[in-house]
Amino acid sequence: MEFYQLISFVTVARIGNVTRAAAELNTTPPAVSAHIRHLEEELGLILFTRTSKGMRLTSEGERMEKKAVDILSASDEMHHFAKALQQDIRGHVTLGINAEPGYLKIPDIIKTLFEKYPGINLEIITSSTGEILKQVEKGTLDCGFAFGSHSNSRVESIFLSHVDLEIAIPLSFKESLNPLDLNALAALPWIFPTNQCPFLDTVKAFLFEKGIELKNKIFANDDITKTTFIEQGLAVSVLEKSVAKGFAQRQKIFCRQGSEKFETLLYFVYSRQRADDRLIGTVANCLTDAWNIE
Fold it and tell me: CATH homologous superfamily for 91-160+266-290?
């Protein structure tokens, strides 16, 4: 039994006409008739008699109408009660992000929070995976996004997505470099973050298996500096695929076209000690809705 069947039932009972009921419900007469037929089949009762003047409730239908109205009223009451509880959730939540807000679906999350939970104030803090994990564990950051797997037992994770990576090589090296020559590629300057970087770690692990090490390092931890290094053609970097594509379209880099596929994982993280925190749970629910995570 579905709510839409009950709604069609009580609407036809009130109006006495399938066509006018369908117009009120913004649907078609065949759809309304099907709802009532399926409801009758499920209940094993005849709810209406069809007359030249329209639809008239049977004695069983009259009794069932009262019950259906009670059920729908209870459903409305539950929705109003849930809305009131949503209004009661208030507080300030800090959310660490490690990529472009659009990529992380931040606009969708903010929209849902604003519409459903106006009492929650969300503060977005731009950071890196390593720093987000560290601050979440310490309790100085409520929650955040993190790339790559981690083994921190104090941090809870919700898997969001696989992330495709590209080795982004400055165009200044294109004529002199065979990008399939891993030793030659590894000999170029590479951008190294000063803290944990799952993107770079993925490529380093691949090269390590082949006995190759990156030695020419340029350290930078903020996105502005890294972007400048990339645009000025100073060093190789490992980027999320759509970001690398953007640089390539602006003719700043080219991507290594090897047979290997590099990827990492994206998680939503929060302290395990706060697993029952209503604020964290609410933000997590909005986030998983935005990412279509069941």
Answer: Periplasmic binding protein-like II (3.40.190.10)
